[in-house]
Every structure is written in structure tokens, then in C-alpha cells.
Design brief:
Length: 259
């Protein structure tokens, strides 16, 4: 394919000036030269390998988080509040007297009416009040302390969870990330080596969390039903808590040079 451009030139033939058409052939490549653009070579950008590594660290559960309280029922709100205050004070003083108890705090106080049916109508028959506190203690001391608390006036245990300390969890998270990074790097080296490819650089790193699993809750239904349960002799085996982390690497590579 070619383009033709029309131009003209003047000839002097005697006294007469004549304009004659002339044609010039312009190649397609020449006409498009001004419009051509350089397309960057993006082949190397797609030469990447994505690998994900996993790291785990097991640490002992050294802390028990306990939630317990006092629940009182009575005919009038004044009597209920007085009895609640008396029993709650005794339980709190007991917990404060134990040097092993830490992070003691009140989490809930409530006073609610109780209803019954009378003459086809719903009427107030009394009141119910609760005071819930939360604290931490070593797992091996849970049984004895709960036994003392029940005898002092506690009537309910809302939950006991066994966890590692915050400091141990933070340190284990770093270890898990380190292990996951090394695992991902090892996988990349193995894959590229097997395919005779050479690693150039790591172009991206993604840390997909390093969080511990949900704490382990101890079943305490028997205590909730029987406040006179003897918990002092109940053994508690805290076990270990697993911290897990995932690290994803994107590695750029190139073919290995051969002699």
C-alpha cells in the first residue's frame, strides 16, 4: 500500500508559463513514522512467583481470666440492694486479699424487677440484682479461690478462660512471623531451583495475621447449679496455646545463565 501526494511545479516554455501536476510517492512507513510509539517491554513484569509460608509457635497458658459475681433476689428493691452490697463487698475484699489476683474490675451491676401473673395481670413480685467482677489469676489456683469466693457470698461464675500472658503472645507472634517468612523463602528457593530459574528480588511481602485462637473456656455448669460445690481439689491443666502466622512473598525471577 502507498500514499500519493499531489504537488506542482512551473516550467518556463518560451513566454508561456505552464503549471504541470507532479506526483510523489510516499511510502506507508514514512507517513506513519511521526505517529509511531515505542511499546515498553513488560515481559519481565510477569515473571514472578507467589509463595505463602506458615509459622506456628506453641506457648503455655499461664493466665486464667475469671468472671464471677453475686446474684440476690428479694421482695423490695431496697432489701435486695442492701444484701447485694453486703455480699459483693465480702467477695471483693476476699479477692483483694489475694496477692495473686490481678486486673480486678467490676464489669456489671444490675437491678431488675421480677414479674408474675395475678388476676390476669402482670405484676411485680420482687426484684433481682447482680454484681459481676472480673480478674486474672494463675490457672493452678482457680479451684481454691473459687471455693473461697462461693463460701464468702459469690453465687455465680460466668466463665473462666485460659490464655497465655500478653507478653508471651506478643513474643510468639514475632516468632511465628519469622518462621513463616523463612518457610515462604525456602519454598521459593526450592521451586526456582527445580525449574533452573534465578531469583532476582522480592517485590512484595504480605503478612496475613499472627493471631492466637480463641481462648479455652472451662465448663462450669455444675458450679452454677450448686454453689456449695467443692472446687478446691479440682485439678486444672492449662495446656498450650498455638500462635499461627502466614507470610506471602512475590518473587521476581529470571532464567539461569548457561555456559
Amino acid at each position: 500500500m502507498a500514499y500519493y501526494c499531489l504537488t506542482s511545479f512551473k516550467l518556463n516554455s518560451g513566454k508561456t508559463l505552464k503549471w504541470l501536476p507532479a506526483f510523489c510517492l510516499v511510502g506507508l512507513v514514512g507517513c506513519q513514522a511521526a505517529q509511531s510509539q515505542v511499546t515498553p517491554n513488560t515481559t519481565f513484569q510477569s515473571q514472578t512467583l507467589v509463595v505463602s509460608g506458615r509459622g506456628t509457635v506453641d506457648i503455655p497458658r499461664t493466665t486464667a481470666k475469671v468472671s464471677l459475681g453475686v446474684e440476690v433476689q428479694g421482695e423490695t428493691s431496697a432489701l435486695v440492694q442492701q444484701e447485694l452490697a453486703k455480699r459483693s463487698l465480702a467477695v471483693v475484699n476476699l479477692l483483694k486479699a489475694h496477692s495473686d489476683v490481678t486486673k480486678l474490675e467490676t464489669t456489671s451491676i444490675s437491678l431488675n424487677p421480677r414479674y408474675s401473673q395475678k388476676g390476669g395481670k402482670q405484676v411485680i413480685s420482687g426484684y433481682s440484682a447482680t454484681n459481676i467482677v472480673r480478674f486474672q489469676i494463675a490457672p493452678e489456683k482457680i479451684g481454691t479461690l473459687l471455693d473461697e469466693a462461693v463460701k464468702t457470698g459469690a453465687t455465680r461464675v460466668d466463665g473462666v478462660t485460659l490464655v497465655a500472658s500478653d507478653e508471651a503472645i506478643a513474643a510468639a507472634q514475632k516468632e511465628a512471623i519469622d518462621a513463616a517468612s523463612k518457610d515462604a523463602r525456602s519454598q521459593a528457593d526450592a521451586a526456582l531451583g527445580a525449574l533452573e530459574l534465578k531469583q532476582r528480588e522480592i517485590v512484595s511481602i504480605q503478612i496475613n495475621g499472627a493471631r492466637p485462637p480463641m481462648p479455652v473456656a472451662m465448663p462450669l455448669s455444675s458450679l452454677a447449679q450448686n454453689s456449695t460445690a467443692d472446687l478446691a481439689s479440682t485439678p486444672v491443666v492449662a495446656g498450650e496455646q498455638r500462635i499461627e502466622a502466614f507470610v506471602t512473598l512475590q518473587v521476581r525471577y529470571q532464567p539461569t545463565e548457561r555456559n
